[in-house]
Amino acid sequence: MTKTKKWYDYMWIISATYLILGFFNILFAWIGLLCFFIPLLLAIFGGDKIYCNRFCGRGQLFDLLGNKLHLSRKKNIPKFLRSKWFRYGFLTFFMLMFCNMLFTTYLVFTGTNSLKEVVTLLWTLRLPWHWANHSTTVTPWVAQFAFGFYSVMLTSTVLGLITMLLFQPRSWCVYCPMGTMTQLICKAKYAKEEAQHTCHVCTTCNSCNSCGNQRNCEVTYQTEEG
Amino acid sequence: MAKRKAVVLQNECVACGTCVKTCPLQTISIYKGMFAEIGSKCVGCGKCASVCPASVIMIEEVQA
Ligand code: SF4
Ligand code: SF4
Fold this sequence. Notes:
The structure holds two protein chains of two kinds.
Chain A: H1 11-24, H2 34-46, H3 50-55, H4 57-68, H5 84-110, E1 118-121, E2 125-128, H6 140-166, H7 172-175, H8 177-195, H9 219-225
Antiparallel strand pairs in A: 1-2
Chain B: E1 3-8, H1 18-22, E2 28-31, E3 35-38, H2 47-51, E4 57-62
Antiparallel strand pairs in B: 1-4, 2-3
Bound molecules: iron/sulfur cluster (SF4) (2 copies).
């Protein structure tokens, strides 16, 4: 157990700092967009979940709290929470709420609504957060987006903390919308590659698996996945 | 004594990589962002199974 720590094992510091900074100045919330775009770009162009596997500071934070600080019960997650319909359902819900947040920002942008200095926790609880808005210099929609985005980040952190306590430290990873999304992208990318793949053993592979060699012929994986 | 080895329910794996970080023999990898793959060095210690947040790793006996 003497694995040397790499620089990317300290990303949890960034995640924790992010949440703290948003408490003092809401505009820092914008930085969180990186946690959206980096995993997506790595999945789209790299075809893997290296972000989750290596860089995700939130996962590391839950890992630390649950394992190092022994805050987790380390119980199995209930089956429905790891089922496909829950994971895809949560992703859908999350994206809808995200669009809703963008729409709120748009309404402030057009001047229809005025800026609301609140952080909405769990999509319902409106927490006063006016002290974090010093943004007299920025246009209101910039601040509105920051409040909205910080709400998303705080909500998901709270959910993650709850499941960290109740189940395994990184239970959040099971239903994390970003994780689900990047895995879907990877699967789609792989399916596309496979469609163009020709087997080395047979000229026309129909996934019969008679070669039984998953190492040389990755097509067999598709039948498992299907 | 029968040998033991970790087996991943690949269809339910979320490819989070928690197991990869835990394996003392570093024999797990995430296959193309889709699921975890147990390497040949696995000794069936069960460390990965105990940390998997989705509980999709089983330790099974294998014929020698
Ligand atoms: S810890 Fe479990 S869910 Fe995560 S990659 Fe490993 S087997 Fe898959
Ligand atoms: S059972 Fe032990 S050796 Fe085998 S993959 Fe899991 S952690 Fe590694």
